[in-house]
């Protein structure tokens, strides 16, 4: 190999390394700026006009990094609202991550659930955010019996941008879904066909909004959880990770959170290593009662303490009783067919309706 050839190779390697370092620096800076832009303050915060009211509620507890962390996810329908006005939550979820067990849980909260709103009269849980994010976190935390450290707030456009930014998701739509409304000039009509298909942001929004079937909001919250899990899985792909700065830039105008950059980075690291271990509707059907309060149809919780225990049993299942397990084992051995009986229980369910926009 000649000296000239060696120099050419060395220079080529140096140029490639310089390009990689330059891209890495650009990626890191863009990624950091994108994360930082999600945490808004002052005039840029959607809650700037109610910050003084919300400040009366205790600040959320700090996350130390080793105990389970709970994040309130809120999606709103901001159609027809002026800047500074906060609409009720159209959807509410709590994502819980246990950094020690490396497990994640996703709870969707029925928006008609009637509960205490800190500093205000009892009301539907979806009204809590109209008083500020601290109020919403405290209300949800008190309802579930767990501390809520963080919130993420977005609207229809933020959801659409997120799904489009990851390239859409492949998803099975379980039935035809159709809904039309002239009230919003048919901008948010729903028209989906049954079957496996690729959903872009607009189609994904149609799927999570649909509630015009026998179970209304009950099945809608289940669909929302399943779609969110599909989007989260797509974001863990190498392609999406490489596109993170662009994804953040795209969704930033429509998202607000109290997460600091360092917390986001820790959470992302923990979540990437964790597996989904539970996905439930809250409150569960067995604890719900339909009532009319102040002329409005609401869902009340029969026993608030039982609901809190229900959440704990999901996140930290009680150890099985050795004697019970032994009895079950003996029962199986004495069964000549080698099968267990599987009695089924039926529960009656009903739906509630409201005049809120879909």
UniProtKB/TrEMBL annotation:
InterPro entries attached to this UniProt entry: LytR/CpsA/Psr_CW_biosynth, LytR_CpsA_psr
Record field: compositional bias (Low complexity): 344-358
Region span, Disordered: 310-358
Residue ranges with Basic and acidic residues bias: 329-338
Domain of life: Bacteria
TM region(s), chain numbering: 9-29
Keywords: Membrane, Transmembrane, Transmembrane helix
Domain annotation Cell envelope-related transcriptional attenuator: ranges: 88-236
Coiled-coil intervals, chain numbering: none
Pfam families assigned to the protein according to its UniProt record, in alphabetical order: LytR_cpsA_psr
Family per similarity comment: Belongs to the LytR/CpsA/Psr (LCP) family.
Protein name: LCP family protein required for cell wall assembly
Species assigned in the record: Paenibacillus lactis
């Amino acid at each position: 190999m000649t000296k000239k050839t060696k120099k050419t190779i060395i220079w080529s390697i140096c140029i490639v390394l310089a390009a990689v370092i330059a891209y890495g620096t650009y990626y890191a800076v863009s990624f950091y700026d994108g994360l930082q832009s999600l945490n808004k303050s002052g005039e840029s915060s959607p809650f700037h006009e109610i910050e003084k009211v919300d400040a009366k509620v205790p600040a959320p507890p700090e996350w130390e990094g080793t105990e389970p962390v709970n994040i309130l996810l809120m999606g709103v329908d901001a159609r027809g609202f002026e800047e500074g006005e906060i609409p009720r939550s159209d959807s509410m979820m709590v994502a819980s991550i246990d950094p020690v067990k490396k497990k994640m849980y996703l709870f969707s909260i029925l928006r008609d659930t009637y509960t205490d709103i800190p500093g205000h009269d009892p009301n539907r849980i979806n009204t809590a955010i109209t008083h500020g994010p601290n109020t919403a976190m405290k209300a949800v935390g008190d309802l579930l019996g767990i501390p809520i450290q963080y919130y993420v707030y977005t609207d229809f456009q933020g959801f659409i941008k997120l799904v489009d930014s990851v390239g859409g998701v492949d998803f099975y739509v379980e039935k035809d879904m159709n809904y039309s409304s002239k009230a919003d000039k048919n901008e948010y009509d729903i028209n989906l066909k049954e079957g496996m298909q690729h959903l872009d942001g607009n189609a994904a929004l149609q799927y999570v909004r649909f509630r015009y079937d026998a179970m209304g909001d009950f099945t809608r919250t289940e669909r929302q959880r399943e779609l969110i899990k599909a989007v989260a899985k797509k974001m863990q792909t190498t392609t999406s990770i490489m596109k993170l700065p662009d994804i953040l830039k795209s969704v930033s105008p429509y998202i607000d959170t109290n997460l600091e950059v360092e917390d986001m980075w820790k959470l992302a690291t923990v979540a990437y290593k964790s597996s989904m271990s539970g996905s439930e509707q809250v409150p569960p059907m067995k604890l719900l009662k339909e009532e009319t309060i102040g002329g409005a149809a609401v869902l009340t919780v029969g026993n608030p303490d039982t609901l809190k225990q229900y959440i704990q049993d999901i996140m930290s299942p009680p150890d099985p009783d050795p004697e019970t397990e032994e009895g079950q084992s003996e029962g199986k051995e004495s069964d000549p067919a080698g099968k267990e009986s599987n009695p089924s229980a039926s529960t009656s369910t009903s739906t509630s309706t409201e005049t809120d926009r879909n």
